[in-house]
What does this fold into?
Amino acid sequence: MPRDHSREQPQWLLARHSALTARQLLRAYGLLCLFSLVIAAAFALRGLWIIPVFSFAELGLVAAALLHYLRHARDYEHIVLRDGVLIVEQVSAGRCRRHDFALCCTRIAVPQGPRQLIHINDMRDASRHVAVGVFATPERRRQVAQELCALLPPRMSPP
It folds into this structure.
């Protein structure tokens, strides 16, 4: 049966690419702890108590860095066009922000440089804007912005 493409909702998912899963990260940290604590115990047995102190400090700092990494490992931006409304969801560290833009009053700024993001602006309210594309390559940002611009209704020029 052929698909009805007119009913599909265009959407884009721009997600952070994580090299390690949480389980792999915990295993690596466990091995680091084991290795570091064995060495620290050997020095402690010889009477050098400063080495275990620094070892615990090091493991604490590495744990803090890994927790920060895990908090942001699932960050993403989701853009969807639904019923004449452009919906942008941004998730960072488990906190979700949602922005809704009416298609007739939305302007998309296509990024020109490699470090520029896609800027989505509400023409009725200048304070309502959002920048997306943090997790995408410059080529992917430009492609998404051009696809979004193609879906917007044509602008009517003032008389």
Observations:
- The longest helix spans residues 22-45.
